[in-house]
Amino acid sequence: MGRHVVGVATDLPPGTNKILLLEGRSVGVFNVNGTYSALKNSCPHQGAPLCVGKVTGMTLPSNPGQYLYGREGEILRCPWHGWEFDITNGKSIFDPHKCLVKTYEVAVEADADAEETPSVETYTVKVEGAKLVVYI
User: Where does the Rieske domain lie (predicted)?
Assistant: First the structure.
């Protein structure tokens, strides 16, 4: 897969995502607590548009009678049948070793154009008749 600039990092704040078409593939890009992840927008179960599903958390291992909830914003639920996947690595919650969603590398790169260029103080110069005039 080639390199694709898909936007400015600040345009995708934590807890948001966007779906893009890259090289003919539908890809969801997510900001999970300041870390960016990208997943193929297709559930391995029946090909549902996975990345339009609900982003949520999950119950965590706990003692009997306790219900601990965590990982808010890290779990993506398929909109068709409710299968759940870890956005950060594409692994399914129910069978992380066999059922996965394709993931893609995401990087935040410095914008060379945005680097501060040194400036020089300038003044307006105007020719008035034969005189050279500088306005400060």
Answer: 3-115
Closest CA to 24 of 8, 44, 2: 2
Sign of the Cα pseudo-torsion (88, 89, 92, 93, in order): negative
pTM: 0.78
Q: What is the residue extent of each domain of the chain?
A: 9-110
Fold entry, domain 9-110: Rieske Iron-sulfur Protein (2.102.10)
pLDDT in tens, 69-108: 999 999 999 999 999 999 999 999 999 999 999 999 999 9
Record the tokens describing residue 80, joined without a space.
């068709």
* Rounded Cα distance, 40 and 26, in Å: 6
